[in-house]
Structures are given as structure tokens and as C-alpha cells.
Amino acid sequence: MIQMKQVYKKYSNGVMAANGLNVTINPGEFVYVVGPSGAGKTTFIKMMYREEKPTKGSILVNNVDVGPLKRKRVPFLRRNIGVVFQDFKLLNRLTVFENVAFALEVIEEPPKIIKDRVMEVLDLVGLKHKARMMPDELSGGEQQRISIARSIANRPKIVIADEPTGNLDPETSWEIMNLFEEINSRGTTIVMATHNREIVNTIRHRVIAIENGLIVRDEQRGEYGYEG
């Protein structure tokens, strides 16, 4: 599903965020990406959906080499990738329904399919009854659920999440993790960068630890491995 071969990423300020990464993530896996702040975790996952471009090396996502991909082809790559952010990134001028529908409108799905699919994913995240509400009328946990619904609206093969519980209280974080577990159980590959030690150590999955742009640990059913 995702394969990196000798991937390097050097920023213009000289920071080496990826220093020869080699990793394979198989279809249906659930992978935590952990490490200290500034270790290269966010760069690692941003390169998967071509928000960042590798300086050297190859990254295959769904058998597409994303590095040399022309900019106009990036939206086609992202049709098979859902992305969930720490700060939700909902469009405040749109209703809950419209926020989720937007992901399908940009790929020109017919209105009937959009309506059915939006209500299906809102039902999955438990917020079908709030379809007509605005984002600022929702709690943080509800906004993150909408963000997740939007990320899976077009049935992507991969969901990439960058600190999806970072702005949430502990109880809500567990609810969000249960939702990710459900999505993963349906066959979607999930790659999640997180600082949440308790979640990683409780809901065991593969753990990739990154430090100074290097993969220092890659364990099945691994532990967080850092203090705090």
C-alpha cells in the first residue's frame, strides 16, 4: 500500500527531516508513528499524500510514485487517501452535511450518490442528526468526527491522521480511537502520528518510531516508548 525506498527530505534551512527512510506498510495495517517533537513524524506522513516532496528516493502509494508526480495529478492521488488533522480544518461557512459533501463534489460525484454517501458516513460517526448544524455549534470531539467522516466519504484505501486526538480531552480521544478502529476493521489502512502514550500502549498496533529523520524502531504490537 505504501513503500518508501531510501527517502531523504532536506528543507531549505538545512534541517534533514528524513534521512534514508525505508518502510513498507501493507494493505489493512494500522500503524502508529511516534517520536519526539521535531523528529520528522509530520514530514514522514505529509510525504505520503504529497503535501511535502522528497528530496531524494521513491515513495509508492497505491503503486503510484508520488515524488515526480506533476502538481495537476496530486488531486487524483488524494482521491484514495483520507487525511485527518489535529485542528479539524472544517469549513466554518458550510454545514456539517456540506463539509462532508465537499469531498465528493470536488471529484464530481452525482448529487444522489453524494447525499446517500454523506448520510452513510455521518451515521457511522454518530452525527447523522446534526447534518444541518454549523461546525461552531459542535464540540471539539464532534468536529473531529466530522473531519473523519469527510476523510472517508470517498471510500479511500488509506487514512492518514496527524495527531487526531491532540486537541481533545481523554474521554473524547478514546471515542475517536474507537472510530478509527471501526474504519480499520473495514479494511482501510490507517497511518497515525501521535504523542498519546496511553492510546498507543492500550490499543496495540504496529509502531514506527522516528528520531532525527531516522526510523529507530519498527515493531508489531509495539509500545510508545517515550516518557510523557
From TrEMBL:
Topology within the bilayer: Peripheral membrane protein
Subcellular location: Cell membrane
A cellular component term, taken from the record's GO annotations: plasma membrane
Subunit structure of this chain's protein: Homodimer. Forms a membrane-associated complex with FtsX.
Gene Ontology biological-process annotations: cell division
Major localisation: membrane
Family (UniProt): Belongs to the ABC transporter superfamily.
Identification of the protein by name: Cell division ATP-binding protein FtsE
NCBIfam families: FtsE (TIGR02673)
Listed InterPro entries: AAA+_ATPase, ABC_transporter-like_ATP-bd, ABC_transporter-like_CS, ABC_transpr_LolD-like, Cell_div_FtsE, P-loop_NTPase
Ranges for domain ABC transporter: 2-227
Keywords for the protein's UniProt record, in alphabetical order: ATP-binding, Cell cycle, Cell division, Cell membrane, Membrane, Nucleotide-binding, Transport
GO molecular function: ATP binding; ATP hydrolysis activity; transmembrane transporter activity
Primary role: Part of the ABC transporter FtsEX involved in cellular division.
Coiled coil: none
Pfam families: ABC_tran
